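Comment thread on ticket #2218

A.B. wrote:
> Attaching the input chain for the structure job we discussed in standup.
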Amino acid sequence: MTENNNSNNNTPSTTTRKPMFRKQHYDAIGKLIGEKIVYDVTDEEDYSIIEAFAQMFAEDNPAFDKVKFRDSIHNAHSKKAVVVVMEVLCCFYME
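C.D. wrote:
> Ran it. Output below, let me know if you need it in another format.
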């Protein structure tokens, strides 16, 4: 006689599911967005891309912090902007 024990079932429960993404993923993706996307929160397309990622991460992980994610995008974009300005200035002074 076999006993049907649901506690040994290998099907994951939705309440105990681990998030697919973690902080290191949020940081890496935020950095990538900040470096590769022309980051302008007043631009509807840029804003919608950022919000789509933020919404996906928030649904995946209740501990996700939208503010920190946006900060990582902004910081990466700011660093990229500084590098571009330095490159322009170097070219300008070398002429």
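A.B. wrote:
> Thanks. Noting for the ticket: The two ends are 89 Å apart (CA to CA).
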